[in-house]
Amino acid sequence: MRLLIIEDDAEAAAYLVKAFREAGHTAEHAADGLDGYDRARDGRHDVLIVDRMLPKMDGLAMIGALRAQDIDTPALILSALGQVDDRVKGLRAGGDDYLAKPYAFSELLARVEALGRRKPGGASEPTHYRVGDLELDRLAHTATRNGEEIALQPREYRLLEFLMKHAGQVVTRTMLLESVWDYHFDPQTNVIDVHISRLRAKIDKGQATPLLHTVRGAGYMIRDGAR
Amino acid sequence: MTALGKLFRTTAFKLALLFLVVFGIGSGLVLGRVALSVKGLLDDQIAQVIDAEINGLSEQYALGGVRRLTATIERRIREPGASLYLLANAAGERLAGNIAPLPVDRIARAGAGETRYARADETEAKRFTLMRVVLIRGGEFRLVVGRDLEERDRLRRVMGRALVSSLFWLAVIGVVGGLFVAFRVLRRVDAMNATAGRIMAGDLAERLPVAGSNDEFDRLATNLNAMIARIGELLAGMREVSDNIAHDLKTPLTRLRNRAEEALRTARDEKDYRAALERMIEESDGLIRIFNALLMIARAEAGAWRDAMAPLDVGELVSGVAELYEPVAEEAGMRLDVAVESGLSARGNRELVSQAVANLLDNALKYGANGQGGEVTVSARGDGQEIAIVVADRGPGVAPADRARVLERFVRLEGSRSRPGFGLGLSLVAAVARLHGGKLELADNAPGLKVVLTLPRGAA
Lengths: 227, 460
Description:
The complex is a heterodimer. In chain A, the strands form three sheets. In chain A, strands 2-1-3-4-5 form a five-stranded parallel sheet, with helices on both faces. Chain A is of the alpha/beta class. Chain A has helices spanning 10-22, 33-40, 59-68, 84-92, 105-117, 154-165, 173-180, 191-204; strands at 2-6, 26-30, 47-51, 75-79, 97-100, 128-131, 134-137, 142-145, 148-150, 171-172, 212-215, 219-222. Chain A is built from eight helices and twelve strands. Chain B has a five-stranded antiparallel sheet with strand order 2-1-5-4-3. A five-stranded mixed sheet of chain B has the order 7-9-10-12-11, with helices on one face. Chain B has a two-stranded antiparallel ribbon with strand order 6-8. The mean pLDDT of chain B is 82. Chain B folds into three domains: 11-153, 2-Layer Sandwich (Beta-Lactamase), CATH 3.30.450; 216-301, Helix Hairpins (Orthogonal Bundle), CATH 1.10.287; 306-456, 2-Layer Sandwich (Heat Shock Protein 90), CATH 3.30.565.10. Chain B has helices spanning 2-9, 11-76, 150-200, 216-266, 270-301, 314-331, 350-367, 425-435, and strands at 84-89, 94-97, 111-117, 127-136, 141-148, 310-313, 335-340, 345-348, 375-382, 386-392, 439-444, 449-456. Chain B is rod-shaped and about 150 Å long. In chain B, strand 11 and strand 12 form a beta hairpin. By secondary structure, chain B is α+β, with helices and mostly antiparallel strands.
C-alpha cells in the first residue's frame, strides 16, 4: 500500500514511516498541510494519514480541499483531541476514520489496512463473503460452515460480517466496538473478547481448522487457516 | 476633576442625561400643544367677535347707507375696548375708523387675515391685528374690522416663559438627581471593584459585600459570590486532580520503570525481552486509559459537552449497553435482568451516558458477585420529570459511610483493590450526571448495592 503521512512532528513521522515500511507498505512523509496537499492531489496514494494540527494548512482544511477536487483517497485523522465531538468534526470534514493520540501502532496499522482495502471506490459490496469453508450470505443473512447453517444472534451476525469483510486483516477491539456497536467509549473490561469467544464457539467449535484467530497485542482476524 | 470625569463616563450619569432629554422633549411637546390649543381658541373667539361686529355694521349699512355706517363706526370707536375699524374708499383713503389707512392692495379683496397696523395717532405699523375685509358696492367702499392681538400674544409669551422655566427646573432636578444616583451607584461599584481586584489578586476566600437590601446590586454580588465559590471549587478540584494524578500515575510509572530495569538486568534471550516489552506496553496502555478517563471527567465537569447534546432514547440506550455486557455476565456466571420502559426521552450525549451505564454495569458485574453467582438488574423508568436508570446487584454493597467517598476520583474501597480498575468509574458517572443536570445516588439493595442515575426528562 502507498501511504502518505502528513505529520509535522519529525520524530513521530520518522517512526511511522519506518513502522509502516516494516509492515510491508511504502510510506512517504509530508511535513505540513500545503506539502501534503500538493503530494496527495494526484490521488496516487491508497491511504492518507493526516495529523489534525498542521502548519500552513490545517489537517481538516487540507482534507476538505482535496475532497473539493474530487480526490477521495481515504484519510485517517490522527489527533491529540480524542473527544467525541472532535471525532464527529473530523469525520464531517471528509475524514474516513479518526484515531486519538496516543495510540498503539497495531491499532493504526489495522485501521489503515482496513481503509486501504476499501479503495476500489464505488464498487458495490459483494453479496457473499467466503473464508475457507465458512460462508456468509448477506442477502439471506445466514452463515454456513461446510454447508451447515450456524444460528447467529443479530449482533453476532454483524460481528462476523465485519470480520469477514476484513478477512485476512487484523481487526482491533476498538474497531469492532465502533463498527459493530457504534460505541466510542472505553468499555473497561474485555467485553469484546467475550463476544468473540461466543462467536468462536459457534463457528470454530468441532472444526478441524479454526478460522477466527486472536492476534496478540492487536486484535482478531478471520482467515483460512490453510493459508 | 477625575471623579467628575469618571462620573461622565458612568452608565448612571448617561441614563440620567437620557431621561433628562426625553422628559425635556416630552414636556416641551405637551406645553407647546397646550399653547397651540389656547391660541386656536382665542383666534376663534376673536373671529366670532369680528363676525358679530360686521353683521351689526352690515345692518346699519342696509338701514342708512355709507353715511349711517360711518356714524356707527364713529360712535363705536369711542366705546371702551373698541374693536379696530377702517372704512376706506376704492383708493384706500380713510373715511372713518381708528386705525391708519392700510395699503390698498392689502384690502383689495374680501377675506380674513393677520396684518400689521398702526393706530390712527401713530405713524409706524407695529401692532398686529386679526382683521376681516368686506367690500361694499362692489369695492367702492372697503370696510375693515379687526381685533388687536396684543392680548393673545401676551398669553403666548407667558406660556413660552413657563415652558423655558419648567425646562430649566427639570434640567436642574435631573442633573442633581442623576448626580446623586450616579454617585451612590459609583460608590457601590467602586467597592465591588476593589473587592474583585483583591479576589483577582488571588484571595479567593474574599466575597463581595452584600448590603442586604436585595436590590440589583445585592443580586449581582450574590451571583458573583456564587461564581467565585464555584471557581474556588473547580480550582480545588483541579488541584486535587493534579495531586491525584501525580500520586496515582507514580505507581504505574514506577512499575513501568522497574520492568524496564529488570528486563535489562535479567533477560537472557529475545523471548524474555519480548515478554518484558509486552508487559510494559500493557502498563502504558493502562496509563493512557487513566488519562483518558480523567480527561473525560474534567471535560464533563467543565460542561465542555453542552453543545454535543442531542435527544436520546434512554430505554434503547440502556438495553443496548446491557446487551453489550450480557455475555460478560454469563461468563461470570451471573444473571443480567433488563427492564426498560419505552419512550423515555432525555437530552444528552449518547457516548457519555452509554459510558456511564457501561461503568455501572461493569462495576455491578465486577463487585456484585456473591457465593451463588449473583444477579444484576438494570432498569430505566420515568415519571413526569425524571428518568431513573437503576443498576442493582446482590453483592456485598457499599457501607453508608463510604457511599459519598466512592464517587471521588481514585477512591477504591478495601477489597476491590485486587481487581483491575483505577477508581475512576463512578467519578465519571457522577460527572456525567451533573453535566446532564441529573444526580447519582448509591443505596442499599438489601443485600447488595443499588445505584440510581437520574436524568431530567427532555423533549425528544
